[in-house]
Design a protein that fits this description.
Domain PAC: 92-147
Order of helices and strands: HHEEHHEEEHHEHEEHEEHEE
CATH class of the largest domain: Alpha Beta
Number of helices: 9
Number of strands: 12
Keywords: ATP-binding, Flavoprotein, FMN, Kinase, Nucleotide-binding, Phosphoprotein, Repeat, Transferase, Virulence
Protein name: Blue-light-activated histidine kinase
CATH topology of the largest domain: Heat Shock Protein 90
EC number: 2.7.13.3
Pfam families: HWE_HK, PAS_4
Shape: elongated
Strand content: 25-35%
CATH architecture of the largest domain: 2-Layer Sandwich
């Protein structure tokens, strides 16, 4: 940009500024009109004195207007302040730059504006050369790159979150299996019980994370009770599920599975599923056009409303909202209560 501005300045003022008029020969005009950059000559008080064809098109000014109008009002209101600051700096002999934005035919265009002072032999600023370049493609690419990088950061956080959960759930299952084995000395050993629960956990993870690969048809739906039993199989004996016959659309199976998986994981780490006398009651039913699934914990440690949501809970909330549903949490004296609402599905 600076190099281009230097070339334009040399074309307009090949011998430097030594007289009081703006050069405007046919050759100079042709040279500037050949550029896709918007090139303007502005007085130190902001009056537009000269502009090439690209600038006239961008600002909606007729080429034969004679100019002489204030420059800043030709720009969108949102950049007036930045433009005024840049103009003041250029009038004091400093190069100045500011970003711009405009709307044309329903499309947003982004601009990089560089103001360069034109100084006479006495060292006084006489004019200002303003070069505006359309950087829309670059701005969009930078935005796409930022979105992609944010996606990578989110994925990395999700991986860290899941890895930490694996260890927490494994620890909770070990304690659960040890208590179960101790309660029945003649039954299966803790190791055998643990192996069975880990196998069930693997199947539950498949249910939660692989449903999205199934082809979707609005005619396909799954009984909510079967889905609850599948996801929570590792925690049999620690939860009770009951509800009327209700169905979840295949497109929402992953949402419900992730919701249950995340609640169970947090319950093992902090709540009823990780406590000896803890219990989870799950109820589901259809109310009007909604599927309402309620998760209630009792017998666990005392709970309180956290100051902020954890990564997993925030992620699940976003997933449920994207499916057209909602999640409500209440930290009651007896334990956590969570209600999820989703659009109901017709029977399979």
């Amino acid at each position: 940009m600076e190099t281009s501005a230097g070339i334009y300045k040399s074309a307009l003022f090949p011998d430097g500024f030594s007289h009081g008029i703006v050069p405007h020969t046919p050759v100079q005009k042709a040279m500037l009109d050949a550029s896709v950059d918007c090139i303007k000559v502005i007085s130190t008080d902001g009056t537009l004195l000269q502009m090439n064809r690209a600038g006239c098109v961008a600002l909606g000014v007729a080429e034969d207007s004679g100019f002489g109008m204030p420059w800043l009002p030709l720009l969108p209101d949102g950049v007036h302040q930045a433009g005024q600051i840049a103009l003041s700096h250029a009038a004091q002999g400093q190069n100045a730059r500011f970003p711009g934005q405009s709307e044309a035919e329903g499309e947003t265009r982004y601009w990089d504006n560089l103001l360069t002072p034109v100084i006479d032999e006495a060292g006084e600023v006489q004019l200002i050369l303003c070069v505006s370049r359309d950087v829309t493609a670059k701005a969009r690419l930078e935005r796409e790159l930022e979105i992609a990088m944010e996606g990578e950061r989110l994925l990395a956080r999700e991986m860290r979150h899941r890895i930490k959960n694996v260890f927490a759930v494994a620890s909770g299952l070990i304690s659960m299996c040890e208590r179960q084995a101790a309660a029945d000395p003649d039954g299966a050993s803790a190791t055998e019980i643990l192996r069975g629960r880990l196998e069930a956990l693997a199947l539950a993870s498949d249910t939660a994370f692989e449903q999205s690969e199934m082809p979707y048809s609005s005619a396909h739906a799954l009984d909510v009770g079967l889905l609850v039993a599948s996801v929570l199989k590792p925690y049999e004996g620690k939860y009770h599920g009951a509800g009327e016959q209700a169905f979840v659309a295949q497109r929402d199976m992953t949402t419900v599975s992730l919701f249950l998986h995340e609640l169970a994981t947090n319950s093992v780490k902090y709540g009823a599923l990780g406590s000896e006398n803890g219990r989870v009651d799950i109820d589901w039913r259809t109310k009007g056009a909604e599927l309402v699934l309620t998760w209630v914990e009792t017998g666990g440690p005392a709970v309180s409303d956290p100051k902020r949501s954890g990564f997993g809970s925030a992620m699940i909330d976003r997933v449920v909202r994207s499916a057209g549903g909602s999640v409500e949490r209440a930290w009651e004296p007896g334990g956590l209560r969570v209600v999820m609402r989703l659009p109901a599905a017709e029977s399979a």
